[in-house]
Amino acid sequence: MWVFVKLTTDNGISGIGEVYKVPFHPRTVALMIKDTCETYVIDQDPFQIERLWRSIYYGEGYESHDHHQHPDHTVAGILSAIEMACWDILGKALEQPTYNLLGGRYHEKLRSYTYLYPAPNDTSRKSPHTDPEAASKSAAAHVADGFTALKFDPLIDVMGAEDPREPPLERLDNATEVVRAVRETVGNKADILIGTHGQSTTSGTIRFAKRIEQFDPLWFEEPVPPENRDEMARVARMTSIPVASGERLATKFEFRELLEKQAAVILQMALGRVGGILEARKIAGMAEAYYAQIAPHLYCGPIEAAANIQVDTCSPNFLIQESIGMFDGFHGEILKKPIQWDDGYIIPPTEPGLGVELNENVVKQHLMSDT
Question: What is the pLDDT of residue 158?
């Protein structure tokens, strides 16, 4: 379910933002957005993004929510959508893409990666994340499409409410064979990204990392749950695989810990949760001082994707961008002009603001049902 926010100025300029994974029903989220906008946003100047951000984050002037000042996922998600909508308005008002307002176009194109999805010719219905043969077929198909980096979670079948847990030996054996199959299939044509979801204990993660170091992954993502940055740092010290993390964190304050504790060297902020475009740009700037890189997370709609692309384009320490396939299918249909993807790379737009426009006729055909 995608949740979009549309803001319109009194002179008719509209901007779009997207909320990522606020942990409530979408209709509840819509009411939260309405309440936040009525309290903090209506009649404000969209150019004053820093002031607006701090008003919402700190709960300034709202008696029943005064001074909450914490990277809460609900507030941060709604704030993110409002903030990126303001940047969209600013760019349109100034007739500039957002990245030109944040330092300019540093990258001419942006390398992208995809999750492993079942290969078109694979009728086995086995998961390419946990079945070596399915993983091999999927990897070959995606490389043929032009991707030079592939992500998968070979331990995904042990996720659950008991996490983190010690992976059973047979799971470790199978996961190792999945990674081996992908590496043998792609050779040096593509990077391997281990996209776990914090389901293992520190000790289990270290055991697994030592098994797969031979396959030279580009990163090990969320090797332990993200709330304990000390344990993530312990993993980072025990493996040669770079640690990536950040999709479940919000604001510069939580990313500061990742950097100071040397828990991750690849930061994966989700722009629909982290606090928006300027917050992500601040985090990217912080990361530069630690020689850390950014690889923004994306597993939602095309508006967050467009916001990611703006930050990627102007950030010297951009590494790679998660993409939803080639941004075709419904991700393309819901936009008037699809995000441009060419042979493994995203081409940054030159249009003003976020560089994309929702096709509202398509949106109306797919609104959430009242039943």
Answer: 67
Q: What does the pLDDT average to over 101-107?
A: 98
Query: Strands, DSSP E only, in the chain?
Result: 3-8, 14-19, 110-115, 149-152, 191-194, 219-221, 243-245, 266-267, 293-294, 321-322, 341-342, 345-346
Structure tokens at 216: 């030279």
Closest CA relative to residue 5, chosen from 28, 30, 35:
30
DSSP string, 247-288: TT--HHHHHHHHHHTT--SEE---TTTTT-HHHHHHHHHHHH
How much of the chain is in helix, strand and coil states, percent to nearest 5?
45, 15, 45
Task: Of 371, 302, 367, give the one whose Cα is nearest residue 341.
Answer: 302
Pairing state of beta strands 345-346 and 341-342?
Answer: antiparallel
Per-residue DSSP letter, 158? G
pLDDT surpassing 60 at residue 62: no
Average pLDDT of the residues in 334-338: 97
